[in-house]
């Protein structure tokens, strides 16, 4: 890819100024590269590593699709066929009926499993893991996360029509499935299939051994306070545990869309049976989709509660990345991404 110094147009500058002025945003950065690999926008410190948060799920998606291509899984594979009964039982109980045995790989990827999000479970009186780590860092393992999720009833019957609800629990389960199919830890799998194959320089799965590197990452803010949570990051795994920078993330998306990890035909299937999630966005198979409309480019990608968003315009192959370093609404992040991709491409 060609990385050239770029001066944002006045349209882009105006949008970047609005994002920078938003309450809580700290030293944001953005990178936009067109389909020919030319840099349209390089703003802020795009070489500074950061916790990708929910963008990690794009790498997890790539590994799952690769496993499907090699015959280890299918979208319809029931997770009870891949994981021990004690892990699966009780994940989605409604009334007196346990629907857990009907949960499939596709349900996990598309957040249509009905499993409660262990990180932010419902209930006004619930002291969620998110609220806990804002005051005191802590870690957890898969069994502890599933224990929290099983404490709550299912959100809906798995695969219910037009129902989707984000749950971090889904991707921790996918990590467990990948370990069964590959015999490798998530860290080893990402190092081999993504970091090594693409020659990424600043991408790795954050683990307990990485704690000394935590303070080299871009600070993440929660309501104006720096969030110091290395244990939580090390516990997030396939749902949010990857560290990277803007350039590595764009390089990964370039390879993702060109089928370097799985058959390229999957890219056209990701929006199939998508469900509206508001603000003109749709939830597909492991991706968020923004259909093209007046002033809004066609985008496919993900946005994170950590303020990082990345995606590709399937029509022009322009790839965008933005990070605000502020915990917040992922849909706002996707809106920011849409704005910079659209205005940088004008």
Give an overview in words.
The chain has helices spanning 10-21, 56-69, 85-88, 105-109, 129-133, 142-150, 168-182, 186-198, 230-235, 237-240, 246-257, 266-269, 330-344, and strands at 29-33, 39-43, 50-51, 93-94, 97-98, 204-205, 221-222, 225-226, 242-244, 275-278, 281-283, 288-290, 299-303, 308-312, 319-323. The chain is an alpha+beta fold. The chain has 2 domains: 10-56 and 184-344, DD-peptidase/beta-lactamase superfamily (Beta-lactamase); 59-182, DD-peptidase/beta-lactamase superfamily (Beta-lactamase), CATH 3.40.710.10. Strands 2-1-15-14-13-12-11-10 form an 8-stranded antiparallel beta sheet, sandwiched between helices. The protein has a 3-stranded antiparallel beta sheet with strand order 3-9-6. A two-stranded antiparallel sheet has the order 4-5. The two termini are 20 Å apart. The relative contact order is 0.19. The model is unreliable at 1-5 (pLDDT under 50).
């Amino acid at each position: 890819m060609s990385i050239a110094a770029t001066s944002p147009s006045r349209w882009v500058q105006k949008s970047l100024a609005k994002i920078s002025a938003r309450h809580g945003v700290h030293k944001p950065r953005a990178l936009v590269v067109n389909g020919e690999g030319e840099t349209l926008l390089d703003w802020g410190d795009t070489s500074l590593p950061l916790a990708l948060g929910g963008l990690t799920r794009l790498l997890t998606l790539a590994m799952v699709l690769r496993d499907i291509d090699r015959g280890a899984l299918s979208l319809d594979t029931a997770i009870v066929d891949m994981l021990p009964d004690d892990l699966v039982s009780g994940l989605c109980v409604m009334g007196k009926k346990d629907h857990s045995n009907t949960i499939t790989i596709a349900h996990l990827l598309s957040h249509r499993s009905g499993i409660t999000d262990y990180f932010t479970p419902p209930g006004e009186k619930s002291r969620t893991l998110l609220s806990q780590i804002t005051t005191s860092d802590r870690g957890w393992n898969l069994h502890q996360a599933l224990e929290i999720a099983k404490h709550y009833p299912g959100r809906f019957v798995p695969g219910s029509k037009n129902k989707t609800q984000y749950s971090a629990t889904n991707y921790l389960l996918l990590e467990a499935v990948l370990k069964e199919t590959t015999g490798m830890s998530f860290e080893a799998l990402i190092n081999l299939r993504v970091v090594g194959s693409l020659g990424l320089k600043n991408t790795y799965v954050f683990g307990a051994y990485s704690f000394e590197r935590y303070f080299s990452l871009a600070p993440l803010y929660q309501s104006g306070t720096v969030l110091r949570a290395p244990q939580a990051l090390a516990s997030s795994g396939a749902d949010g545990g990857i560290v990277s920078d803007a350039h590595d993330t764009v390089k990964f998306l370039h390879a993702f869309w060109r089928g370097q990890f799985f058959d390229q035909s999957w890219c056209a299937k990701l929006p199939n049976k998508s469900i509206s999630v508001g603000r003109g966005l749709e939830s597909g198979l492991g991706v968020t989709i923004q259909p093209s409309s007046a002033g809004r480019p066609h985008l496919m990608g993900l946005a994170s509660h950590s303020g990082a968003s990345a995606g590709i315009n399937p029509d022009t192959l322009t790839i965008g990345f933005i990070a605000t370093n502020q915990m917040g609404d992922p849909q706002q992040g996707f809106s920011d991404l849409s704005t910079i991709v659209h205005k940088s491409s004008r």
